[in-house]
Every structure is written in C-alpha cells, then in structure tokens.
Amino acid sequence: MTIRLENVSFRYTQGIEGFFGQEQILQNISFRIDSGEFVGIVGPSGSGKTTLIQHFNGLLKPVSGRVLIDHKDITGQKKIPGNIRKKIGIVFQFPELQFFENTVYDEVSYGPRNLKIPGNEIEKRVREAFDLLELDFKDFRDRAPFHLSEGQKRRVAIASILVMKPEVLIFDEPTAGMDFRGVLRLKSFIRSLKNSGRTVILVSHDMAFIAETVDRILCLKNGQLIFDGTKIDFFSDVPILQKANLREPEIVRLARALRQENIPVPFSITDLRGMKRFLEARLKSENSFKIR
C-alpha cells in the first residue's frame, strides 16, 4: 500500500476549540511512502506530526493538495472507503483512554465484531495479536482493561489495531507515559515488525529509538518538511538536527567523536548494537586500540 501526499496544506479554522483565526499547521507537504517501508516522522512539538498522520486515513482533509492511497485520491471524499480505512491502523498517544468495553477480549475484538467476522476467526486473530504482544490469552481475556498497568493497556490498545490486519501501522509517540520495563517491551515489539512486510510509521521524540529502528526519516518544523531521506543522512546532518531542535542520540555523538580521533566508525552505525559490533571487531583486528 502506497501513501502519497502532493502539496498538502492544512489549517485549523476559527470555531475549532483551542484555535483562533486560521493557524497554518502543514505547508505544501509532498512525499511518498511505499509498501514495506519503516519510516520515522520527527520534529519539535507543534511541528504538525500528529496532524500529518491524520491525513493518511482521512481523519483530516487538506485545505489544498491531494492525498492518494494506493493511487486513489481520497482528498475530496466525505467518507473514506472501508477497505482503505481498514488497511491503515493508527495507534495514537494514550490510546487506552478510549477503552470502553468491560473485558480485554471484548475491547480487542470490537473492530472485527463490527465487521461481522465469524467468531472463530475473531478468536484466532485475538490470540495471534496477544502472542505478538506477549499477553497471555487465558490470563488477560476476561480482565477489565481499565485495571491493567500502563504498559499492558498500551499493548491491549495495539492488539485492537492488529486484529484488523492493517497493511500500514502508525504509532504516535507509542511509549509516552510508560514505565521503563513497558517501554523496553513495546520497543522490542515495534522493532520486530521490521520483517513483517507491513509498512510501519513511527512518530517519536525518542531519537535513539528512531535511530535504532527506522530506515527513512521525515522531519517537520513549523508545518514544513525540512528533510526526507535515510536515517544515515539525517543523523550525519548536524545543521538539520539543530534547525529542528532535536538532540542527536548518544551513539551518534560517540561515533562522531571517535571519527574525530581518526577511528573510522561507519556513518551507518546509529545504535548501540551496531557500535558494539564495530568496537568488538576493531579490538580483535587492532591490538593497539584499547578502551580504557
């Protein structure tokens, strides 16, 4: 499934709570995301990231420009076709605030039940989603979702998206408000999606998580797309990071410092695992290089 934006602009108009006059949120945004890509969307707070992803499934409509999903223009459609909306799953910040069913099973199975999917197929999908997210089916199915830990709630919310079998998964600040253990578990799950064949779009302020997970980065500032390229090029471009007011990951800074000491750390190394492999190989090949 491809997502293409052509010169998309968006503004909130007077009358919407919290906005006065006409505030330009997105300005002439153009890009294309192809099937199977793993993309990070980054930028300072208020840069338009959440507004942008809401255009992908028609939750918001641009004031100018076009949004095309699988080459179909959805810009002017009052109601987005179900076959398109089903294929794009968005996990917003704090999705657990939208829980309303009494049990975890009913919460996760709500979407498929609405589609009149047979009960045995629904249970199969729920079990598969639970397995992916390390939720024990017998332990969680009859529990009240409101009484779970924050990490468990977030995983239940993601399971409710997975059961819809989306081709595109979008995570908007997925680790917000979670404890350390929950963050680690959720990060591990999102990384595991890399070989699933799905398109994954990750909106996050966590630059280290972005660096170790995605392949391509879109960077917004003040509603404008100021970068679209590989994560290697992004983290090598100090002026762009400064312009976007983003803090580069510790590993990227370490790699730059080592290169300044004539240690040829490849620019492709942007995460801890990559750095560990490089340093281990370096230690084996050069006895003169020592870590003190």
The CATH class name of the largest domain reads Alpha Beta
Mean pLDDT: 90
**Strand share of the residues?**
15-25%
Count of DSSP-assigned helices: 12
Oligomer: single chain
How much helix is in the residues?
25-40%
User: Cα distance, first to last residue?
Assistant: 50 Å
Order of helices and strands: EEEHEEHEHHHHEHEHEEHHHH
In order across it, which strands form the biggest sheet?
6-7-8-3-9-10
Output the radius of gyration: 21 Å
Please state the second-level CATH architecture of the largest domain. Answer: 3-Layer(aba) Sandwich
Given the C-alpha coordinates, what overall shape results?
globular
Helix/strand/pairing class, anyone?
alpha/beta
> What count of domains describes the coordinates?
2
> How many β-strand runs?
10
- Poorly predicted regions are none
- Largest β-sheet summary: 6 strands, mixed
Set out the fold topology.
Elements: E1 3-12, E2 23-33, E3 38-42, H1 49-53, E4 64-69, E5 72-73, H2 82-85, E6 88-91, H3 104-114, H4 119-132, H5 137-140, H6 150-162, E7 168-172, H7 180-192, E8 199-203, H8 207-213, E9 216-221, E10 224-230, H9 231-236, H10 238-243, H11 250-260, H12 272-285
Outline the structure in words:
The chain has helices at residues 49-53, 82-85, 104-114, 119-132, 137-140, 150-162, 180-192, 207-213, 231-236, 238-243, 250-260, 272-285; strands at residues 3-12, 23-33, 38-42, 64-69, 72-73, 88-91, 168-172, 199-203, 216-221, 224-230. The chain has 292 residues and is of the alpha/beta class. It has two domains: 3-231, 3-Layer(aba) Sandwich (Rossmann fold); 249-292, no CATH class. It has a six-stranded mixed sheet. It has a four-stranded antiparallel sheet with strand order 2-1-4-5, with no helix packed on it. Strand 7, helix 7 (180-192) and strand 8 (199-203) form a beta-alpha-beta unit. Helix 3 packs across helix 4 and helix 3 packs parallel to helix 6. The longest helix is centred in the middle third of the chain and has 14 residues, at 119-132. The N and C termini lie far apart (50 Å).
